[in-house]
Design goal:
This protein has 16 helices and two strands. With 435 residues, it is mostly helical. The protein has a single domain, classed as MFS general substrate transporter like domains (Growth Hormone, Chain: A, Up-down Bundle). Strands 1-2 form a two-stranded antiparallel ribbon. It is globular.
Length: 435
């Protein structure tokens, strides 16, 4: 079958909206963890709570807005309007400052501890607000638009590009701001202001870049029925391969979320790599290039052939990061881990898009987020926090303590990945029978 070609404008919209969206998610998923750790000495349990609250918000939002975009039959207004609101919410983090909160809510110097606690609470609440706008724009509308815009001849390659962006965004964010001292509040004000302004600007530009896809049908007219469509037993029975892939996606992302919230802290605090960006950046770049090319294997060979090597790479990366401490070996292990991380996500994402019923992409984005964000976002960080419950601690200059992430998070991630592979076996049998 001849490959369906997409326009240059489509690829431009895909790259910049996926990249900037993932830049914003990097702030939410990784930078906020570093922010409340550095500024307010948050514990592993508080970081886990923030990730879990955000995961619940993302799931509910995606289910509601995904179904609404199907009913209205438009994606563009949700993407562009959502990005604008998303950027404004990121700007709000610049106001979460201990000195500002202390002056606003407390008068006595002795209330410093309460001010810090309130800053952590405000960060979590604002994170949920940011997640609401981001999930409406990116998880629900943009991903539905991407599903609408692809077919079986180009889905793997396009998903490969889309799946490159999470780690490319880390490269952009951490590389772009590597010169800033993250122990200073002023640095975080710059970070949140710049990223927030970029996201707002892209939302405005999207009205001119994105080509609307017509998705409305009479079957999509009942909004409340659409919300629960993907949870109907009859729908599940009719789409068993899709739901089997969603289960695998959830298990895979649990593996990722066990270590990902603590990865940067592991590099900097446990390994003492203050120049970790110089190690991290090349690994991310090479992994992104690898995933971009590897996505074409899905189109040529299919899911079963493509997924096994990527799971193997991810497992090998975990093993290396668990055992190695030297700079060169940590770099190589990180490279292998990131190649497996990105390409596995791309294969699972492409398979989900392939099995998503036509004209119902919005309805199923909520289910995708259940597997990609909700279950992993609650279970993964909780496992990570439990693993780190007895981690070593250090005493900060103000007398507070901070935990030191250790290599056991990668061992936990490896166990979860083995469970993922076992869950794929019945799916492979089902797909073989269907074929």
């Amino acid at each position: 079958m001849e490959r369906t070609r997409k326009s240059a404008k489509f690829y431009l919209a895909l790259v910049i909206f996926a990249l900037v969206g993932q830049v914003a998610w990097t702030v939410e998923n990784m930078y906020l963890n570093v922010f409340i750790y550095k500024m307010f000495h948050a514990s592993a349990q508080q970081i886990s709570l923030m990730v879990s609250a955000s995961a619940v918000t993302a799931t509910v939002t995606t289910i509601l807005i995904g179904a609404l975009s199907d009913k209205i039959g438009k994606r563009k207004v949700f993407i562009c309007g959502g990005y604008i609101a998303w950027g404004i919410s990121i700007l709000g983090f610049a106001l979460v400052r201990e000195d500002l909160v202390h002056r606003t809510f407390f008068s006595a110097v002795s209330y410093n501890a309460a001010a810090i606690s309130l800053c952590i609470t405000l960060t979590i609440v604002l994170d949920c607000m940011m997640t609401f706008f981001g999930s409406a724009a990116n998880d629900a509308a943009f991903n539905a638009w991407l599903t609408d815009s692809t077919d079986e001849t180009n889905r793997g390659a396009i998903e490969g590009i889309n799946s490159m962006m999470p780690l490319v965004s880390i490269l952009v964010v951490f590389g772009g701001f590597m010169g800033l001292n993250q122990d200073l509040q002023e640095s975080w004000t710059i970070i949140f202001t710049v990223i927030g302004a970029v996201v707002v600007s892209l939302g405005i530009a999207g009205f001119f870049l994105i080509k609307e896809t017509a998705v409305r049908t009479e079957e999509n007219a009942n909004y409340f029925a659409n919300i629960f469509y993907g949870f109907r037993p009859s729908v599940i029975r009719s789409n068993v391969p899709l739901y089997g892939t969603l289960v695998a996606l959830a298990l895979y992302n649990i593996s990722i979320q066990i270590f990902m919230p603590y990865l940067i802290l592991y590099y900097t605090e446990s390994l003492g790599m203050d120049n970790y960006v110089l190690i991290f950046a090349p690994a991310i770049l090479l992994a992104a290039i690898f995933t971009g090319f590897y996505g074409k294997m899905f189109d040529r060979k299919g899911f079963q052939t493509a997924i096994i090597p990527t799971l193997t790479l991810l497992a090998l990366g975990y093993v290396g990061l668990y055992f190695f401490r030297g700079t060169v070996l940590v770099f190589l292990s990180s490279l292998v881990m990131m190649c497996g991380f990105l390409s596995t996500g791309a294969m699972l994402g492409a398979q989900i898009r392939a099995y998503t019923p036509e004209k119902k992409a919005g309805m199923f984005q909520g289910l995708r987020i259940v597997g990609q964000v909700l279950i992993p976002g609650v279970v993964g960080p909780a496992i990570g926090a439990a693993i780190l419950s007895n981690a070593d601690t250090i005493v900060n200059s103000d007398g507070t303590t901070s935990f030191i992430p250790n290599e056991n998070i990668f061992l936990g991630a490896l166990v979860a990945l083995i469970v993922t592979f076992l869950a794929l076996i019945p799916l492979f049998k089902l797909l073989k029978k269907e074929k």
